[in-house]
Automatic annotation (TrEMBL):
Domain GGDEF positions: 292-418
PANTHER family according to UniProt: BIOFILM ARCHITECTURE MAINTENANCE PROTEIN MBAA (PTHR44757:SF2), DIGUANYLATE CYCLASE DGCP (PTHR44757)
Identification of the protein by name: Diguanylate cyclase with PAS/PAC sensor
Single Gene Ontology BP annotation: regulation of DNA-templated transcription
Stretches assigned to the PAC domain: 84-137
Classification of source organism: Bacteria, Bacillati, Mycoplasmatota, Mollicutes, Acholeplasmatales
Pfam families: GGDEF, PAS, PAS_3
PAS domain sequence ranges: 138-208
Amino acid sequence: MNQKMIDDTLASLLIEAVGAATWYWNISTNEVKINQRWAEFLGYTLEELDPMTFDKWKSCVHPDDLSKALLELSDIQNTKKEAFNFEIRLRHKNGHYLWVSDRGKIVSYDYFGNPSLVIGLFFDIDEKRRITEDLRKSELNLRQILENTKDIIYRIDLEGRFTFLSKSWEEHLGHPINEVLNKSFEPYIHPDDLNKVNDFFERIQKYSNYQEIKGYRVRDKNGVYKYFETNGQPIIENNQTIGYSGIAKDISELLDKERKIEYLIYHDNLTDFKNRHFFDQKIHEINRIENYPLCIISCDLNDLKNVNDTLGHHKGDQMIVKAAEIIRRHMPNKEYLIRTGGDEFLIFLPNTEEETAYNIRESIKKDIETVSTNEFPLSIAYGYYVKKTYTEDIREDIKMSDKLMYQNKNKYKTIKSS
């Protein structure tokens, strides 16, 4: 029996004895022999693949992996290495591919020192590769989310130090992330909002659940404070809270739009006073005990209809604007200046007694006299009433102020007609 026959016999005995998917390759004859486990892994019987050849093996390898595998085997043939280990995909009988880790080693050389026999085996790593690929895709997706989200994703430890920040932190605030990590969040929070933010994290720690906070301010690189809203939840390891994570959203533009909308809803375009809708919505806020004594002032332009009829509505609008300007100038508190109708104004002055209301009226009267002319006959009827107890109905008190204003208006008419 020659050496080739001995080698082939030993190789055959070996691959049959090993329970793993085993093979040998006779380089001299290009003959390939596999065991039952090798065939079964790809869904075949041993008889279906017999005789196994090198070309048949190549047909089982995924096209994208074939050049890599052939390069490894070429190095074996050229004695550049004695062993190899590579990962490739083999085609199953049903047409799908399975990942394997294929390992082989030269076990025999011919008379001239060239490799003549290689024995190897492969291990099923398909599940491992698929898990690895799923993890890779998951990490890629997460990275893309972190890199592309407009909101700031953060993690902080129990001492309030940032342990992670998404790159949107720099986009919104300009502070380099590497200068912020492992440092406290507190220097970036507006001093007036710091207690509010600390309370937010204390609630997460106390209740171990999701919490939200809205309307706190964070300082950007230029020293400008921006408004944010944030959610957060505990980071728990071994049943212990080790920090907090969440998403912070810049709501500066949103709040600005809300303020503009609220302004349009509650303000009169002509005078910039509050409007009737504001009064209807805020009357309970105005009628708070802490505002007592609450001075209620009713104003109404005299002869506006006559001005509109004789000089035009544009002149009437000018008079309304001028009257509002004078009223505003003399009011110590400008929070509740309301235009309730065409030429009617209602003013609420918290913590104001009769004497102050009287002095305001006299100041307005003098100011109007300086601007009133035949071409611009500005005149205002004025009445006031001071509400001192909560038991009084504020709407009845407004009627009292209106009544006194109309008495003043009638007095003006009497003087004018005499």
